[in-house]
Fold this sequence. Notes:
Helices cover about 75% and strands about 0% of the residues. It contains eight helices and no strands. α1 (about 5-20) crosses α3, α2 (about 35-45) runs parallel beside α5 (about 85-110) and α2 packs across α6 (about 110-140). The longest helix has 28 residues, at about 110-140.
Amino acid sequence: MNLARTRTTVTAALVAALIAVSAFISIPVGTVPLTLQVMAVVLAALVLSPVGALAATGTYLLIGAIGVPVFAGGKAGLAVLAGPTGGFLLGFMLGAFLGAWVRKIAEKRIGLLPAYIAASAIVIIVVYVVGWLQLSFVTGMGLSKAFALGVVPFVPWDALKAAAAIGFAISIRKAGALPSL
């Protein structure tokens, strides 16, 4: 295994661990808890390749699915992924992948900071859409109510978490600690 590949693998593993740890900072807000996970998922999109971001989030979900209590509230298992909040978790994979893809393309065209902002927005929007749809479907509460309860209260917090992730990513990049993207 070459050095670049090793750095990418280690970085993806560290980001997966960061997503897991960030789930333990959980504040119950109705059906969907407020955690720091979105910050970690945005960071995955900003510091990893699209495949690396997919690997990091997929590893996190796999670990939780097989029973390691890494989901919010110390939960684990397939029932969590199939439950009311499972769509937000599943959205992590698609959001991180698409966010990293957008970032990679946008960096060359519009610059680093605008690319980071665009990628962060993509991650959050994808996580919200997948989570909102599953919340509505699983609970039967309807799209409007699911949006009001599962998305609206989190928008300002997730914007702040994305801003923090952007700051961390810029610092990590300046330190030269990123794998080749």
